[in-house]
């Protein structure tokens, strides 16, 4: 009886959180198998619904306790429908000074919603492609981390800005 009550509670909580997410325009994850290779690019194809309204963009990550760094460097590239490309190198904090991983989640998997761009207007109609690749290096080493462990899923999210 206890188990079925817990499952029912989780299902209700899940549906409530999904239905109340009225700002979401696009939100998709892709699974990273075993480890994230430095040459592996996670791509998302997006057809924004509006070419006038501004949107906020996020990189979403799920990570486990196997993630051993306090930060994360990503290369995020947006390819516009007419060929223009914008590439950014971004750094995110993944752990507090004591080493405790940041993010939400009560299990061994933490979910992080990381700012990418704010108030973006998709002024070109058509398909945009967002490419995400890690760019991690260990302190004092020239070569990058070849196999980044602990990242299980990489996501991309577009939201309508919150109204004040």
UniProtKB/TrEMBL annotation:
Query: In this entry, which stretches build a coiled coil?
Result: none
Q: Name one Pfam family in it.
A: GldH_lipo
UniProt keyword list: Lipoprotein, Signal
Q: Which residues form the signal peptide?
A: 1-20
**Membrane-spanning regions, if any?**
none
Reading the lineage from the top rank, the first entry is: Bacteria
Respond yes or no to whether keyword Repeat is given for this record. Answer: no
Q: Can you name this protein?
A: Gliding motility lipoprotein GldH
């Amino acid at each position: 009886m206890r188990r079925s009550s817990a499952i029912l509670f989780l299902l209700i909580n899940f549906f409530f959180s999904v239905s109340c997410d009225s700002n979401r325009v696009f939100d998709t994850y892709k699974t990273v198998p075993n480890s994230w290779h430095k040459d592996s690019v996670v791509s998302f194809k997006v057809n924004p619904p509006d070419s006038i309204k501004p949107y906020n963009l996020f990189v979403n990550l799920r990570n486990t306790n196997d993630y051993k760094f306090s930060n994360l460097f990503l290369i995020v590239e947006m390819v516009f429908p007419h060929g223009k490309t914008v590439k950014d190198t971004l750094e995110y904090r993944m752990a507090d000074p004591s080493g405790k991983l940041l993010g939400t989640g009560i299990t061994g998997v933490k979910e992080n919603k990381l700012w990418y761009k704010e108030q973006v207007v998709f002024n070109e109609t058509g398909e945009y492609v967002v490419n995400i690749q890690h760019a991690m290096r260990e302190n004092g080493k020239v070569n990058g981390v070849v196999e980044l462990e602990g990242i299980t899923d990489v996501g991309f999210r577009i939201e309508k800005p919150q109204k004040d």
